[in-house]
Structure formats: C-alpha cells, structure tokens
Amino acid sequence: MADFLATMAKSSRIRADRLHPAEVRSHAAMRTPPRLVVDGFIIIAECKLSAPSVGVLTAPDDPIAEARRRAQVYADAGATAVSVLTEPSRFAGDIDHVVAASACSAPVMRKDFLVDPAQVWEARAAGAGGVLLIATMLKDDVLREMLRTAAEADLFVLVEGFDADDLERIGAVAHAWTGSQPFLAGLNCRDLRTLQVNPGRFAELAPHLPTHVPVLAESGIEHGDGAKRVRDLGYGGVLVGSALMRSDDPAAVIRSFR
Fold first, then answer.
1. Which of 12, 82, 216, 251 is the most buried (most CB within 10 A)?
2. Would 105 be classed as within a structural domain?
3. CATH number of the structural domain spanning residue 98
4. What whole-number distance in Å separates Cα of residue 135 and Cα of residue 166?
5. Structural domain includes residue 27
6. pLDDT, tens digit (0-9, with 9 covering 90-100), for 21-36
C-alpha cells in the first residue's frame, strides 16, 4: 500500500475507534436515504473543500450550508449521485457535510478511507445512500465484511481500485454482492506515490475491467469530451470532483457529461 493510503488508514482507524457501533446503528434505522438508480451513463459529482494534490479548492464561511447548496446544484443538473468527502485531516471533510448534502434529491455517497463496519453505519445514520470502499487498502476479509455491512445497511457501494490486480479483486467480490442496491466498481487513475493523475491508465487498464458491473473512471475527467473517451473504452460512468469545484458553473460541466 502506498504511504498515503497507509497514513489515511491509520487516521481513519483512530476515528473509527471513537464510534459506538450500537449507537450509530440505532441512528441509522431512523434514516431512509434515496436509492441509487442506474440508468445509462453514471455521473457521481463530488463535494470536497480540499485535496492533498491540489490544496484548498474552496473555503466557504459556512461549509455545512455550502455542502447543502452544492449538492442540490449537482442533483438539479442531473448527477446520478453526490459524493461527499468526510476525511478531516487532508480533505477538510466532516460527516456533518453528508448530513447537509443528504437534503438534496439525489442519493449521497460518503467518500472516505473507511476501515471499520461502524463507519458504514455512521454513513447511513448521516443520511448517505452509499459508501466508497478502497480495495487497495482493505484486505480481502475486511473488504468482504465491509460489503456485508453495506448490504445489510441497504447502501450502494463504489469499490475503488488503482491497478489490474485491484480490478480483478473487485470483480471477484462483486460476484458475492448480496445487496439490493447497485455495486459499482471504480478505477482511479491517480498515482499513489506522486498523487498525480495519469488519464492514460484508463485505456491501459480497460482490458482488465470487470464486465458484470458498471465501472467508473475516477480522477482526470474535466469535461464532456473526457467522459466520452472513457465511455468509448467501456466505462459506465465517471466520478468528478476537482473539475466541478474549480468551475464557476458546475451544473454546466455536469450537463456536458450528459
């Protein structure tokens, strides 16, 4: 595992150990998030305030209000789902940003470096309809446990990988998915050593994509032409963050993907 993911996993473990599993599970039962509907090309639009590779993307006076506003802008523009960063140390995220964003009309996905099933229930309790799981940083038994929890919590999952080995593992666990909501795979073209994106990896790894689940292209997609290129390579959708956060008109960017 790259040093960056190891650092994030350690930080996430500290946060997970502060949770009370029975309490977050009880709170989760009080929420019924919108369900993910996969119909055509998938667009997951991301809310994030900062990222290690680019620094501060936006610094709103009220991050909660900004998460609520931006999520609805994305939903109104036709985003399939809204991704919300909750990692605090490098991405300036917070679980309360999910609570705020979940007021929008699209399902919200918690994006973080999750390492414990209690964090899956925490996502559901905050109003998330789905979670991101990073295959690269989770051993097989932990990944399977996280997936079982997501299925029990009635969440959709996006299982992210970075190379051909990851894609093979993701394809294997997808066969065992028992959830009633969609299982999505993701290929992130970011280099975990340098944190730089390499969009050429989408074509390079296209022959290794699982064929029985939709695979999203992550990182490096800036506009509609980029979405068309990955669609033509066999990808079923995109997850886009920085391009939306930098744009003065993120709704127009989302519409360009359509």
1. 82
2. yes
3. 3.20.20.70
4. 6
5. no
6. 999 999 988 888 999 9
